[in-house]
């Protein structure tokens, strides 16, 4: 059986990383158009670097939880498990996952807007950092902002078309194109399952398991 698993901020919530749209979520405290768009970065790079430097520090200090480890066990135990995450943290990898598709980029990586070179980000990035490949001072976090094209879409589309089961874990299903994966997979005949604290959109999935990820994901994997 081929499985595609899509994870969102909810899987890292119990590792202490905030979600975006829950009560006290990041978007209740920050204006997303200022910190998560290319236009916001052009207007105020120092603000955007400060936002991501703080989140990078939190991500690096966080530890993977039982849900990350359970998915890693599943991927290690059987062939045909594609793990796609919207998260920019590296907790799936540190939890033992051998292959993770980061569709919204990685907070531990830097990107040169001039030449597209990517490298490991320092813990603190700044507007004066130069690209190690071309020397331009156009460096930014390697994150997919609103209005930008998510990464690895061809690979994801291929996996969705071929899967027998699509599972969404800890995501509100509000951000496209990830929010449309469930319909895409169902259109190809896959069964669909949501694992979330609360159902994100009743009726959208064939089956829903509710509860905190650290309990519900290991129970589902077992
Ligand atoms: C728990 C839990 C626990 C809590 N256990 N669960 C109008 C219609 C359609 C689309 C658009 C539109 N207007 C604009 C668009 C496009 C736009 C979009 O979707 N906007 C919507 C807001 C409407 N999308 C884009 O711009 C994307 N690009 C694009 O569309 O390009 C064109 C294209 C078209 C077609 C195909 C391909 C391309 C880019 C999106 C980039 C998203 N970037 C962000 C920020 C950057 C990363 C970062 O800073 O970290 O990515 S936004 C933010 O939201 C972040 C996340 O990855 C993403 C999704 O959030 P997520 O993970 O779902 O978190 P929450 O907080 O929303 O939900 C948490 C869930 O966890 C909740 O359900 C809780 O219940 C649950 N939970 N605790 C289990 N313990």
At a glance:
The chain is of the alpha/beta class and 222 residues long. It is 35% helix and 19% strand. It catalyses: N(6)-acetyl-L-lysyl-[protein] + NAD(+) + H2O = 2''-O-acetyl-ADP-D-ribose + nicotinamide + L-lysyl-[protein]; N(6)-succinyl-L-lysyl-[protein] + NAD(+) + H2O = 2''-O-succinyl-ADP-D-ribose + nicotinamide + L-lysyl-[protein].
Question: What keyword list fits this structure?
Answer:
222 residues; alpha/beta; Rossmann fold; SIR2/SIRT2 'Small Domain'; 2 domains; six-stranded parallel beta sheet; three-stranded antiparallel beta sheet; globular; binds ligand BJW; NAD-dependent protein deacylase
Number of strands: 9
CATH class of the largest domain: Alpha Beta
> Low-confidence runs (pLDDT<50, min 5 residues)?
none
Strand content: 15-25%
What is the CATH superfamily classification of the largest domain? TPP-binding domain
Class based on secondary structure composition and strand pairing: alpha/beta
Shape: globular
Strand order of the largest sheet: 3-2-1-7-8-9
The average pLDDT is: 97
CATH A-level architecture of the largest domain: 3-Layer(aba) Sandwich
Count the domains.
2
Helix content: 25-40%
Q: Name the hetero compounds present.
A: ligand BJW
Overall radius of gyration = 17 Å
CATH fold type of the largest domain = Rossmann fold
Number of helices: 10
Order of helices and strands: EHHHHHHEHEEEEHEHEEH
First CA to last CA: what distance? 16 Å
């Amino acid at each position: 059986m081929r499985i595609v698993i899509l994870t969102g901020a909810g899987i890292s919530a119990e590792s202490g990383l905030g979600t975006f749209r829950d009560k006290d979520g990041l978007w209740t405290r920050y204006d997303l158009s200022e910190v998560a768009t290319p236009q916001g970065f052009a207007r105020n790079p120092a603000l955007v670097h400060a936002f991501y430097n703080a989140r990078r520090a939190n991500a690096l200090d966080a530890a993977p939880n039982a849900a990350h480890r359970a998915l890693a066990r599943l991927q290690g135990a059987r062939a045909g498990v594609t793990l796609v995450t919207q998260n920019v943290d590296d907790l799936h990898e540190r939890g033992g996952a051998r292959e993770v598709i980061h569709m919204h980029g990685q907070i531990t990586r830097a990107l040169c807007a001039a030449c597209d070179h990517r490298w490991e980000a320092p813990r603190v990035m700044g507007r004066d950092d130069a690209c190690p490949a071309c020397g331009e001072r156009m460096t930014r976090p390697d994150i997919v902002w609103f209005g930008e094209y998510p990464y690895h879409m061809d690979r994801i589309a291929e996996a969705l078309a071929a899967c027998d089961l699509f599972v969404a874990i800890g995501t509100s299903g509000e951000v496209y194109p990830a929010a449309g994966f469930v319909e895409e997979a169902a259109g190809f005949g896959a069964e669909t399952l949501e694992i979330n604290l609360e159902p994100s959109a009743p009726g959208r999935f064939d089956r829903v398991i509710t509860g905190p990820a650290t309990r519900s994901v290991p129970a589902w994997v077992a």
